[in-house]
Amino acid sequence: MFLLCSSLHRFEISPIVTAMAVLFSRGKVLIGLIYSTPLIALFLIWSILLGGVERIITFIALMSVGFLILGLKPEEVAYALMFFRIPPKIAYAICISMRFLRIAFEDLRNLLGILSIECRGFRRYSMLLKALTSISILRSFSIAESLYSRNFDLNKRIVLVRKPKIIDFLLLASSIFVFVLSLLLL
Amino acid sequence: MIYLKDVSYTYPNGVRALRDVSLKVEENTFIGGLTGSGKSTLLRVFNGLIPNFYGGKLDGTVRIYQRPYLVFQNADEQIIFNTVFDELAIHAYQIGKDLRDVRRIADRLGIELNKEVQKLSDGEKRILTIACALLGSNFVALDEPFANLHPSIAREILKLLIKNAELVIISEHRFEFCRDFDFIWLEDGRISSFNITEPKVKVRGSCGGTALRVEDLCFGYDSPLLKDVTFEVNRGEVCAVVGRNGCGKTTLLKLIAGILKPWSGNVDVRGRIGICLSTPNYHLFADSVFEEVGIDMMKLFELERFANRNPHSLSFGQAKRVAIAKAFKGEVVLLDEPTAGQDYTFKFKLIEIARRLGKTVLIATHDYKILEWCDVVVEL
Asked: Interface pTM (ipTM) of the complex?
Protein backbone atom coordinates (compact mmCIF):
# COMPACT_ATOMS: atom_id res chain seq x y z
CA MET A 1 0.00 0.00 0.00
CA PHE A 2 2.88 2.28 0.89
CA LEU A 3 4.50 1.62 -2.47
CA LEU A 4 1.22 2.27 -4.31
CA CYS A 5 0.64 5.55 -2.47
CA SER A 6 4.24 6.64 -3.04
CA SER A 7 3.85 5.97 -6.79
CA LEU A 8 1.05 8.53 -7.05
CA HIS A 9 3.43 11.47 -7.47
CA ARG A 10 3.18 10.68 -11.20
CA PHE A 11 -0.39 11.03 -12.47
CA GLU A 12 0.38 8.69 -15.44
CA ILE A 13 0.71 5.89 -12.90
CA SER A 14 -2.69 6.61 -11.35
CA PRO A 15 -4.85 4.56 -13.77
CA ILE A 16 -2.58 1.55 -13.22
CA VAL A 17 -2.90 1.96 -9.44
CA THR A 18 -6.71 2.22 -9.69
CA ALA A 19 -6.89 -0.86 -11.91
CA MET A 20 -4.68 -2.81 -9.50
CA ALA A 21 -6.78 -1.80 -6.49
CA VAL A 22 -10.00 -2.85 -8.26
CA LEU A 23 -8.48 -6.12 -9.42
CA PHE A 24 -6.88 -7.21 -6.14
CA SER A 25 -9.89 -6.23 -4.01
CA ARG A 26 -12.13 -8.39 -6.23
CA GLY A 27 -14.39 -5.46 -7.05
CA LYS A 28 -14.80 -4.08 -3.48
CA VAL A 29 -12.90 -0.92 -4.42
CA LEU A 30 -15.15 -0.47 -7.44
CA ILE A 31 -18.24 -0.54 -5.18
CA GLY A 32 -16.59 2.08 -2.93
CA LEU A 33 -15.88 4.29 -5.94
CA ILE A 34 -19.47 3.95 -7.18
CA TYR A 35 -20.78 5.03 -3.77
CA SER A 36 -18.37 8.00 -3.83
CA THR A 37 -19.64 9.24 -7.21
CA PRO A 38 -21.00 12.58 -5.81
CA LEU A 39 -17.64 13.35 -4.20
CA ILE A 40 -15.76 12.37 -7.36
CA ALA A 41 -18.11 14.55 -9.47
CA LEU A 42 -17.49 17.51 -7.16
CA PHE A 43 -13.74 17.00 -7.39
CA LEU A 44 -14.02 16.64 -11.18
CA ILE A 45 -15.74 20.07 -11.49
CA TRP A 46 -13.09 21.57 -9.24
CA SER A 47 -10.19 20.08 -11.23
CA ILE A 48 -11.75 21.17 -14.59
CA LEU A 49 -12.10 24.72 -13.22
CA LEU A 50 -8.44 24.64 -12.21
CA GLY A 51 -7.58 23.49 -15.72
CA GLY A 52 -6.33 19.93 -15.45
CA VAL A 53 -7.91 16.48 -15.36
CA GLU A 54 -4.77 14.86 -13.96
CA ARG A 55 -5.85 15.88 -10.46
CA ILE A 56 -9.08 13.86 -10.66
CA ILE A 57 -7.21 10.80 -11.97
CA THR A 58 -4.79 10.98 -9.05
CA PHE A 59 -7.67 11.59 -6.65
CA ILE A 60 -9.49 8.45 -7.84
CA ALA A 61 -6.29 6.43 -7.52
CA LEU A 62 -5.77 7.73 -3.99
CA MET A 63 -9.35 6.83 -3.09
CA SER A 64 -8.90 3.36 -4.56
CA VAL A 65 -5.84 2.71 -2.41
CA GLY A 66 -7.77 4.07 0.58
CA PHE A 67 -10.65 1.65 -0.07
CA LEU A 68 -8.16 -1.19 -0.49
CA ILE A 69 -6.69 -0.39 2.94
CA LEU A 70 -10.18 -0.10 4.47
CA GLY A 71 -11.13 -3.47 3.06
CA LEU A 72 -8.18 -5.21 4.73
CA LYS A 73 -8.80 -7.53 7.62
CA PRO A 74 -6.75 -6.92 10.78
CA GLU A 75 -5.22 -10.38 10.63
CA GLU A 76 -4.09 -9.72 7.05
CA VAL A 77 -2.29 -6.62 8.27
CA ALA A 78 -0.76 -8.59 11.16
CA TYR A 79 0.50 -11.40 8.93
CA ALA A 80 1.81 -8.92 6.35
CA LEU A 81 3.74 -7.12 9.10
CA MET A 82 5.17 -10.42 10.35
CA PHE A 83 6.11 -11.34 6.78
CA PHE A 84 8.21 -8.17 6.70
CA ARG A 85 9.93 -9.26 9.94
CA ILE A 86 8.02 -6.93 12.27
CA PRO A 87 8.02 -8.71 15.69
CA PRO A 88 4.84 -10.75 16.24
CA LYS A 89 4.34 -8.93 19.53
CA ILE A 90 3.78 -5.63 17.70
CA ALA A 91 1.82 -7.23 14.85
CA TYR A 92 -0.63 -8.94 17.22
CA ALA A 93 -0.97 -5.82 19.36
CA ILE A 94 -2.04 -3.97 16.17
CA CYS A 95 -4.37 -6.84 15.28
CA ILE A 96 -6.11 -6.70 18.69
CA SER A 97 -6.43 -2.90 18.48
CA MET A 98 -8.03 -3.21 15.06
CA ARG A 99 -10.48 -5.81 16.40
CA PHE A 100 -11.51 -3.19 18.94
CA LEU A 101 -12.23 -0.72 16.11
CA ARG A 102 -14.41 -3.30 14.38
CA ILE A 103 -16.35 -3.93 17.60
CA ALA A 104 -16.86 -0.19 18.03
CA PHE A 105 -18.19 0.01 14.46
CA GLU A 106 -20.55 -2.90 15.12
CA ASP A 107 -21.73 -1.23 18.34
CA LEU A 108 -22.35 1.99 16.42
CA ARG A 109 -24.45 0.13 13.82
CA ASN A 110 -26.52 -1.64 16.48
CA LEU A 111 -27.04 1.56 18.49
CA LEU A 112 -28.16 3.44 15.38
CA GLY A 113 -30.66 0.69 14.63
CA ILE A 114 -32.10 0.69 18.15
CA LEU A 115 -32.16 4.49 18.43
CA SER A 116 -34.06 4.69 15.15
CA ILE A 117 -36.94 2.97 17.01
CA GLU A 118 -36.54 4.71 20.35
CA CYS A 119 -36.21 8.41 19.52
CA ARG A 120 -36.01 10.99 16.77
CA GLY A 121 -34.21 14.28 16.17
CA PHE A 122 -30.92 15.66 17.40
CA ARG A 123 -31.33 14.05 20.85
CA ARG A 124 -30.71 10.71 19.19
CA TYR A 125 -27.12 11.70 18.39
CA SER A 126 -26.30 12.92 21.89
CA MET A 127 -27.67 9.65 23.30
CA LEU A 128 -25.69 7.72 20.71
CA LEU A 129 -22.45 9.46 21.63
CA LYS A 130 -22.99 8.89 25.33
CA ALA A 131 -23.89 5.21 24.96
CA LEU A 132 -21.09 4.54 22.46
CA THR A 133 -18.47 6.09 24.75
CA SER A 134 -19.68 4.09 27.72
CA ILE A 135 -19.93 0.83 25.78
CA SER A 136 -16.46 1.35 24.24
CA ILE A 137 -14.91 1.81 27.69
CA LEU A 138 -16.63 -1.35 28.92
CA ARG A 139 -15.53 -3.21 25.78
CA SER A 140 -11.88 -2.25 26.21
CA PHE A 141 -12.08 -3.38 29.82
CA SER A 142 -13.58 -6.71 28.68
CA ILE A 143 -10.84 -7.30 26.11
CA ALA A 144 -8.18 -6.61 28.76
CA GLU A 145 -9.99 -8.95 31.17
CA SER A 146 -10.21 -11.64 28.51
CA LEU A 147 -6.49 -11.38 27.74
CA TYR A 148 -5.63 -11.54 31.43
CA SER A 149 -7.94 -14.46 32.23
CA ARG A 150 -6.56 -16.46 29.32
CA ASN A 151 -2.99 -15.77 30.39
CA PHE A 152 -2.39 -14.31 26.94
CA ASP A 153 1.26 -13.50 26.54
CA LEU A 154 2.64 -11.82 23.43
CA ASN A 155 6.14 -12.86 24.48
CA LYS A 156 5.20 -16.52 24.18
CA ARG A 157 5.91 -18.43 20.98
CA ILE A 158 3.48 -17.23 18.32
CA VAL A 159 3.95 -18.88 14.96
CA LEU A 160 2.94 -17.46 11.61
CA VAL A 161 -0.17 -19.56 11.12
CA ARG A 162 -1.08 -18.29 7.66
CA LYS A 163 1.31 -18.20 4.74
CA PRO A 164 0.99 -15.52 2.01
CA LYS A 165 -0.87 -16.71 -1.09
CA ILE A 166 0.17 -16.27 -4.73
CA ILE A 167 -2.19 -13.30 -5.07
CA ASP A 168 -0.37 -11.54 -2.18
CA PHE A 169 3.00 -12.00 -3.88
CA LEU A 170 1.46 -10.82 -7.14
CA LEU A 171 0.19 -7.63 -5.48
CA LEU A 172 3.60 -7.05 -3.88
CA ALA A 173 5.43 -7.61 -7.17
CA SER A 174 3.11 -5.31 -9.13
CA SER A 175 3.39 -2.62 -6.44
CA ILE A 176 7.18 -2.73 -6.65
CA PHE A 177 6.94 -2.57 -10.46
CA VAL A 178 4.62 0.47 -10.36
CA PHE A 179 6.84 2.18 -7.80
CA VAL A 180 10.01 1.62 -9.84
CA LEU A 181 8.18 2.75 -13.01
CA SER A 182 7.10 5.99 -11.35
CA LEU A 183 10.70 6.63 -10.22
CA LEU A 184 11.95 6.05 -13.78
CA LEU A 185 9.41 8.56 -15.09
CA LEU A 186 10.73 11.28 -12.82
CA MET B 1 -8.01 -28.24 43.38
CA ILE B 2 -9.60 -25.19 45.05
CA TYR B 3 -9.92 -24.43 48.72
CA LEU B 4 -11.62 -21.32 50.15
CA LYS B 5 -11.95 -20.50 53.85
CA ASP B 6 -14.01 -17.58 55.14
CA VAL B 7 -13.59 -15.65 51.90
CA SER B 8 -15.26 -12.25 51.64
CA TYR B 9 -14.88 -9.89 48.73
CA THR B 10 -15.85 -6.27 48.13
CA TYR B 11 -15.56 -4.68 44.67
CA PRO B 12 -13.72 -1.33 44.38
CA ASN B 13 -17.12 0.43 44.06
CA GLY B 14 -18.09 -0.84 47.52
CA VAL B 15 -20.45 -3.64 46.43
CA ARG B 16 -19.96 -6.62 48.74
CA ALA B 17 -20.23 -9.72 46.55
CA LEU B 18 -19.01 -12.60 48.73
CA ARG B 19 -19.48 -13.14 52.47
CA ASP B 20 -17.62 -15.79 54.47
CA VAL B 21 -17.57 -18.37 51.71
CA SER B 22 -15.90 -21.64 52.65
CA LEU B 23 -15.72 -24.49 50.16
CA LYS B 24 -13.55 -27.18 48.67
CA VAL B 25 -13.78 -28.04 44.96
CA GLU B 26 -12.46 -31.49 44.08
CA GLU B 27 -15.20 -32.88 41.85
CA ASN B 28 -17.24 -31.40 38.97
CA THR B 29 -19.29 -28.66 40.60
CA PHE B 30 -22.45 -26.79 39.67
CA ILE B 31 -22.96 -23.34 41.19
CA GLY B 32 -26.50 -22.04 41.35
CA GLY B 33 -28.01 -18.90 42.80
CA LEU B 34 -30.22 -15.93 42.10
CA THR B 35 -29.06 -13.02 39.88
CA GLY B 36 -26.45 -10.99 41.75
CA SER B 37 -25.80 -13.72 44.32
CA GLY B 38 -22.04 -13.75 43.58
CA LYS B 39 -21.64 -16.69 41.18
CA SER B 40 -19.58 -14.80 38.59
CA THR B 41 -17.51 -13.22 41.37
CA LEU B 42 -16.71 -16.66 42.78
CA LEU B 43 -15.55 -17.87 39.34
CA ARG B 44 -13.36 -14.77 39.03
CA VAL B 45 -11.77 -15.63 42.37
CA PHE B 46 -11.05 -19.15 41.08
CA ASN B 47 -9.46 -17.72 37.92
CA GLY B 48 -7.41 -15.09 39.76
CA LEU B 49 -9.14 -12.15 38.07
CA ILE B 50 -10.13 -11.24 41.62
CA PRO B 51 -8.22 -9.57 43.16
CA ASN B 52 -5.38 -9.32 40.58
CA PHE B 53 -7.37 -7.69 37.78
CA TYR B 54 -10.40 -6.21 39.55
CA GLY B 55 -8.73 -4.94 42.71
CA GLY B 56 -11.09 -4.55 45.64
CA LYS B 57 -10.75 -6.14 49.06
CA LEU B 58 -10.42 -9.89 49.40
CA ASP B 59 -10.33 -11.43 52.89
CA GLY B 60 -9.91 -15.04 53.97
CA THR B 61 -7.83 -17.93 52.68
CA VAL B 62 -7.77 -18.85 48.99
CA ARG B 63 -5.73 -21.84 47.80
CA ILE B 64 -5.85 -22.63 44.10
CA TYR B 65 -3.68 -25.52 42.98
CA GLN B 66 -4.46 -25.05 39.31
CA ARG B 67 -5.92 -21.96 37.66
CA PRO B 68 -9.03 -22.83 35.64
CA TYR B 69 -9.73 -21.56 32.14
CA LEU B 70 -12.69 -19.23 32.56
CA VAL B 71 -15.46 -18.99 29.97
CA PHE B 72 -17.18 -15.63 30.42
CA GLN B 73 -20.92 -15.08 30.76
CA ASN B 74 -20.96 -12.84 27.68
CA ALA B 75 -19.12 -14.53 24.79
CA ASP B 76 -18.79 -11.22 22.94
CA GLU B 77 -16.57 -9.92 25.73
CA GLN B 78 -14.18 -12.85 25.57
CA ILE B 79 -13.40 -13.14 21.87
CA ILE B 80 -10.20 -11.30 20.95
CA PHE B 81 -9.61 -11.93 17.26
CA ASN B 82 -11.62 -11.26 14.12
CA THR B 83 -11.84 -14.72 12.65
CA VAL B 84 -12.85 -18.02 14.16
CA PHE B 85 -9.59 -19.54 12.88
CA ASP B 86 -7.38 -16.93 14.57
CA GLU B 87 -9.31 -17.11 17.82
CA LEU B 88 -8.76 -20.86 18.05
CA ALA B 89 -5.36 -21.14 16.38
CA ILE B 90 -3.59 -18.38 18.31
CA HIS B 91 -4.97 -19.70 21.59
CA ALA B 92 -3.83 -23.19 20.58
CA TYR B 93 -0.28 -21.95 19.93
CA GLN B 94 -0.31 -20.09 23.24
CA ILE B 95 -1.01 -23.30 25.15
CA GLY B 96 1.33 -25.48 23.11
CA LYS B 97 -1.23 -27.17 20.84
CA ASP B 98 -1.21 -27.22 17.06
CA LEU B 99 -3.57 -26.86 14.12
CA ARG B 100 -4.58 -30.53 14.21
CA ASP B 101 -6.12 -29.92 17.63
CA VAL B 102 -7.92 -26.84 16.29
CA ARG B 103 -9.40 -28.78 13.36
CA ARG B 104 -10.38 -31.70 15.61
CA ILE B 105 -12.31 -29.51 18.05
CA ALA B 106 -13.87 -27.46 15.23
CA ASP B 107 -15.12 -30.63 13.53
CA ARG B 108 -16.48 -31.98 16.81
CA LEU B 109 -18.47 -28.80 17.53
CA GLY B 110 -19.44 -28.02 13.94
CA ILE B 111 -17.49 -24.76 13.87
CA GLU B 112 -16.67 -23.18 10.50
CA LEU B 113 -13.07 -21.98 10.76
CA ASN B 114 -13.18 -19.50 7.88
CA LYS B 115 -16.06 -17.44 9.30
CA GLU B 116 -15.67 -13.95 10.69
CA VAL B 117 -16.60 -13.54 14.35
CA GLN B 118 -18.92 -10.64 13.55
CA LYS B 119 -21.05 -12.88 11.36
CA LEU B 120 -21.65 -15.43 14.12
CA SER B 121 -24.84 -15.56 16.13
CA ASP B 122 -24.67 -15.24 19.94
CA GLY B 123 -24.94 -19.00 20.33
CA GLU B 124 -22.16 -19.63 17.80
CA LYS B 125 -19.92 -17.15 19.64
CA ARG B 126 -20.65 -19.04 22.84
CA ILE B 127 -19.64 -22.35 21.18
CA LEU B 128 -16.42 -20.69 19.99
CA THR B 129 -15.45 -19.59 23.52
CA ILE B 130 -16.19 -23.09 24.85
CA ALA B 131 -14.11 -24.57 22.00
CA CYS B 132 -11.13 -22.49 23.21
CA ALA B 133 -11.64 -23.97 26.68
CA LEU B 134 -11.84 -27.49 25.27
CA LEU B 135 -8.63 -27.07 23.27
CA GLY B 136 -6.34 -28.01 26.06
CA SER B 137 -7.44 -26.92 29.49
CA ASN B 138 -8.10 -29.76 31.90
CA PHE B 139 -9.67 -27.47 34.44
CA VAL B 140 -12.51 -25.31 33.11
CA ALA B 141 -14.88 -22.88 34.83
CA LEU B 142 -17.88 -21.73 32.81
CA ASP B 143 -20.17 -18.81 33.61
CA GLU B 144 -23.65 -19.50 32.23
CA PRO B 145 -22.35 -21.48 29.26
CA PHE B 146 -25.71 -22.80 28.08
CA ALA B 147 -27.78 -19.61 28.10
CA ASN B 148 -27.64 -19.11 24.31
CA LEU B 149 -27.44 -22.73 23.30
CA HIS B 150 -29.99 -25.13 21.88
CA PRO B 151 -30.54 -27.93 24.46
CA SER B 152 -29.18 -30.64 22.15
CA ILE B 153 -25.96 -28.68 21.53
CA ALA B 154 -25.69 -27.84 25.24
CA ARG B 155 -25.94 -31.54 26.15
CA GLU B 156 -23.31 -32.43 23.53
CA ILE B 157 -20.94 -29.79 24.91
CA LEU B 158 -21.54 -30.91 28.49
CA LYS B 159 -20.62 -34.49 27.50
CA LEU B 160 -17.44 -33.23 25.82
CA LEU B 161 -16.50 -31.11 28.82
CA ILE B 162 -16.90 -34.01 31.25
CA LYS B 163 -14.96 -36.32 28.94
CA ASN B 164 -12.07 -33.94 28.13
CA ALA B 165 -11.54 -31.97 31.34
CA GLU B 166 -10.46 -33.34 34.70
CA LEU B 167 -12.54 -30.82 36.56
CA VAL B 168 -15.47 -28.68 35.41
CA ILE B 169 -17.15 -25.90 37.36
CA ILE B 170 -20.39 -24.56 35.88
CA SER B 171 -22.42 -21.61 37.07
CA GLU B 172 -25.90 -21.82 35.51
CA HIS B 173 -29.55 -21.03 35.95
CA ARG B 174 -30.72 -23.96 33.85
CA PHE B 175 -30.77 -26.81 36.35
CA GLU B 176 -31.48 -29.52 33.79
CA PHE B 177 -27.71 -29.67 33.23
CA CYS B 178 -26.65 -30.16 36.88
CA ARG B 179 -26.98 -33.94 37.09
CA ASP B 180 -23.76 -35.76 38.12
CA PHE B 181 -22.37 -32.52 39.60
CA ASP B 182 -21.69 -31.46 43.17
CA PHE B 183 -24.07 -28.60 43.90
CA ILE B 184 -23.39 -25.24 45.57
CA TRP B 185 -26.18 -22.71 46.08
CA LEU B 186 -25.25 -19.06 46.61
CA GLU B 187 -27.56 -16.49 48.12
CA ASP B 188 -26.54 -12.90 48.66
CA GLY B 189 -22.84 -13.83 48.52
CA ARG B 190 -23.16 -16.71 51.01
CA ILE B 191 -23.33 -20.45 50.56
CA SER B 192 -26.84 -21.46 51.44
CA SER B 193 -29.30 -24.31 51.01
CA PHE B 194 -31.23 -24.58 47.74
CA ASN B 195 -34.69 -23.07 48.06
CA ILE B 196 -36.68 -22.39 44.93
CA THR B 197 -40.35 -23.06 44.43
CA GLU B 198 -41.94 -22.88 41.02
CA PRO B 199 -44.69 -20.24 41.08
CA LYS B 200 -47.93 -20.96 39.20
CA VAL B 201 -48.34 -19.22 35.86
CA LYS B 202 -51.59 -18.31 34.14
CA VAL B 203 -51.36 -20.42 31.02
CA ARG B 204 -53.31 -18.53 28.37
CA GLY B 205 -53.09 -14.86 27.52
CA SER B 206 -56.11 -12.65 26.91
CA CYS B 207 -56.69 -12.67 23.14
CA GLY B 208 -57.87 -9.57 21.35
CA GLY B 209 -57.24 -8.60 17.71
CA THR B 210 -54.04 -9.20 15.84
CA ALA B 211 -51.04 -7.34 17.25
CA LEU B 212 -48.36 -8.73 14.97
CA ARG B 213 -48.54 -10.31 11.54
CA VAL B 214 -45.55 -11.62 9.63
CA GLU B 215 -46.18 -12.74 6.05
CA ASP B 216 -43.81 -14.58 3.68
CA LEU B 217 -40.80 -12.89 5.22
CA CYS B 218 -37.49 -13.53 3.44
CA PHE B 219 -34.12 -12.24 4.54
CA GLY B 220 -30.44 -13.14 4.54
CA TYR B 221 -26.99 -11.65 4.96
CA ASP B 222 -24.51 -13.30 2.57
CA SER B 223 -26.97 -16.11 1.82
CA PRO B 224 -30.71 -16.57 2.54
CA LEU B 225 -31.43 -17.12 6.23
CA LEU B 226 -35.18 -16.72 6.67
CA LYS B 227 -37.44 -18.10 3.96
CA ASP B 228 -41.20 -17.44 3.76
CA VAL B 229 -41.71 -17.00 7.51
CA THR B 230 -45.41 -16.51 8.25
CA PHE B 231 -47.13 -16.26 11.62
CA GLU B 232 -49.57 -14.14 13.61
CA VAL B 233 -49.70 -13.15 17.27
CA ASN B 234 -52.84 -11.77 18.94
CA ARG B 235 -52.92 -8.94 21.44
CA GLY B 236 -51.95 -10.13 24.92
CA GLU B 237 -50.37 -13.37 23.72
CA VAL B 238 -46.87 -14.58 24.46
CA CYS B 239 -45.07 -16.10 21.48
CA ALA B 240 -41.82 -18.07 21.63
CA VAL B 241 -39.41 -18.22 18.68
CA VAL B 242 -37.20 -21.29 18.84
CA GLY B 243 -34.69 -23.02 16.60
CA ARG B 244 -31.08 -24.14 16.42
CA ASN B 245 -28.21 -21.71 16.91
CA GLY B 246 -27.74 -19.39 13.95
CA CYS B 247 -31.18 -20.11 12.45
CA GLY B 248 -32.18 -16.42 12.47
CA LYS B 249 -34.13 -15.78 15.69
CA THR B 250 -32.41 -12.49 16.51
CA THR B 251 -32.60 -11.48 12.85
CA LEU B 252 -36.37 -12.08 12.92
CA LEU B 253 -36.72 -9.77 15.95
CA LYS B 254 -34.64 -7.09 14.20
CA LEU B 255 -36.83 -7.38 11.09
CA ILE B 256 -40.03 -7.02 13.14
CA ALA B 257 -38.56 -4.00 14.95
CA GLY B 258 -37.61 -2.40 11.63
CA ILE B 259 -33.87 -2.38 12.38
CA LEU B 260 -33.34 -4.56 9.29
CA LYS B 261 -35.27 -4.34 6.04
CA PRO B 262 -36.65 -7.63 4.65
CA TRP B 263 -35.76 -8.85 1.16
CA SER B 264 -39.44 -9.59 0.64
CA GLY B 265 -42.62 -10.13 2.64
CA ASN B 266 -44.53 -7.97 5.11
CA VAL B 267 -44.36 -7.20 8.81
CA ASP B 268 -47.42 -5.54 10.33
CA VAL B 269 -47.05 -4.39 13.94
CA ARG B 270 -49.97 -2.71 15.70
CA GLY B 271 -48.63 -0.76 18.65
CA ARG B 272 -45.36 0.72 19.86
CA ILE B 273 -42.42 -1.67 19.84
CA GLY B 274 -40.21 -2.31 22.87
CA ILE B 275 -37.10 -4.39 22.20
CA CYS B 276 -34.32 -5.98 24.23
CA LEU B 277 -31.52 -7.63 22.26
CA SER B 278 -28.88 -9.88 23.77
CA THR B 279 -26.51 -6.99 24.62
CA PRO B 280 -28.48 -5.00 27.21
CA ASN B 281 -26.24 -1.94 27.16
CA TYR B 282 -27.47 -1.10 23.64
CA HIS B 283 -30.81 -0.13 25.20
CA LEU B 284 -29.64 1.85 28.21
CA PHE B 285 -29.14 5.58 27.75
CA ALA B 286 -30.24 7.28 30.99
CA ASP B 287 -28.08 8.21 33.97
CA SER B 288 -29.94 6.03 36.44
CA VAL B 289 -32.14 2.95 36.46
CA PHE B 290 -35.00 5.07 37.81
CA GLU B 291 -34.78 7.47 34.84
CA GLU B 292 -34.50 4.55 32.45
CA VAL B 293 -37.55 2.50 33.43
CA GLY B 294 -39.70 4.58 35.81
CA ILE B 295 -41.08 3.68 39.20
CA ASP B 296 -43.77 1.20 38.08
CA MET B 297 -41.48 -1.01 36.03
CA MET B 298 -38.83 -0.78 38.74
CA LYS B 299 -41.27 -2.29 41.23
CA LEU B 300 -42.55 -4.93 38.83
CA PHE B 301 -39.05 -6.13 37.97
CA GLU B 302 -37.65 -5.72 41.51
CA LEU B 303 -35.06 -3.14 40.51
CA GLU B 304 -35.55 -0.73 43.41
CA ARG B 305 -32.14 -1.44 44.96
CA PHE B 306 -30.42 -0.24 41.76
CA ALA B 307 -32.62 2.84 41.37
CA ASN B 308 -29.76 5.36 41.55
CA ARG B 309 -27.11 3.27 39.84
CA ASN B 310 -25.97 4.06 36.29
CA PRO B 311 -27.35 1.19 34.15
CA HIS B 312 -23.94 0.66 32.52
CA SER B 313 -22.34 0.03 35.92
CA LEU B 314 -24.56 -3.01 36.57
CA SER B 315 -23.62 -6.64 36.02
CA PHE B 316 -24.75 -8.33 32.78
CA GLY B 317 -27.77 -9.99 34.41
CA GLN B 318 -28.87 -6.85 36.21
CA ALA B 319 -28.46 -4.67 33.10
CA LYS B 320 -30.42 -7.24 31.10
CA ARG B 321 -33.28 -7.03 33.56
CA VAL B 322 -33.31 -3.22 33.29
CA ALA B 323 -33.36 -3.47 29.49
CA ILE B 324 -36.25 -5.96 29.64
CA ALA B 325 -38.16 -3.66 31.99
CA LYS B 326 -37.61 -0.81 29.53
CA ALA B 327 -38.83 -2.94 26.62
CA PHE B 328 -42.08 -3.53 28.53
CA LYS B 329 -42.91 0.15 28.04
CA GLY B 330 -43.86 -0.82 24.48
CA GLU B 331 -47.10 -2.55 23.52
CA VAL B 332 -45.40 -5.22 21.42
CA VAL B 333 -42.37 -6.46 23.32
CA LEU B 334 -39.53 -8.26 21.52
CA LEU B 335 -37.09 -10.09 23.79
CA ASP B 336 -33.92 -11.89 22.72
CA GLU B 337 -32.90 -14.59 25.20
CA PRO B 338 -34.50 -12.81 28.17
CA THR B 339 -33.64 -15.61 30.58
CA ALA B 340 -29.87 -15.31 29.95
CA GLY B 341 -28.21 -13.95 33.07
CA GLN B 342 -31.48 -14.22 35.00
CA ASP B 343 -32.27 -16.58 37.84
CA TYR B 344 -34.54 -19.60 37.54
CA THR B 345 -37.65 -17.83 38.85
CA PHE B 346 -37.38 -14.90 36.44
CA LYS B 347 -39.00 -16.77 33.55
CA PHE B 348 -42.16 -17.27 35.65
CA LYS B 349 -42.11 -13.60 36.63
CA LEU B 350 -41.65 -12.52 33.01
CA ILE B 351 -44.71 -14.43 31.81
CA GLU B 352 -46.71 -13.25 34.80
CA ILE B 353 -45.87 -9.59 34.12
CA ALA B 354 -46.72 -10.01 30.43
CA ARG B 355 -50.12 -11.48 31.37
CA ARG B 356 -50.81 -8.86 34.01
CA LEU B 357 -49.98 -5.93 31.71
CA GLY B 358 -51.70 -7.54 28.72
CA LYS B 359 -48.62 -7.09 26.53
CA THR B 360 -47.93 -8.93 23.32
CA VAL B 361 -44.55 -10.54 23.83
CA LEU B 362 -42.26 -12.28 21.36
CA ILE B 363 -39.46 -14.26 23.01
CA ALA B 364 -36.51 -15.71 21.08
CA THR B 365 -35.18 -18.40 23.36
CA HIS B 366 -33.41 -21.71 23.87
CA ASP B 367 -34.99 -22.17 27.28
CA TYR B 368 -37.62 -24.78 26.46
CA LYS B 369 -39.15 -24.58 29.94
CA ILE B 370 -40.68 -21.24 28.96
CA LEU B 371 -42.55 -22.83 26.04
CA GLU B 372 -45.00 -24.46 28.45
CA TRP B 373 -46.61 -21.09 29.13
CA CYS B 374 -46.47 -19.56 25.65
CA ASP B 375 -49.60 -19.21 23.52
CA VAL B 376 -47.80 -19.45 20.18
CA VAL B 377 -44.54 -21.22 19.32
CA VAL B 378 -42.73 -20.39 16.07
CA GLU B 379 -40.00 -22.83 15.12
CA LEU B 380 -37.45 -21.59 12.58
From this structure: 0.83
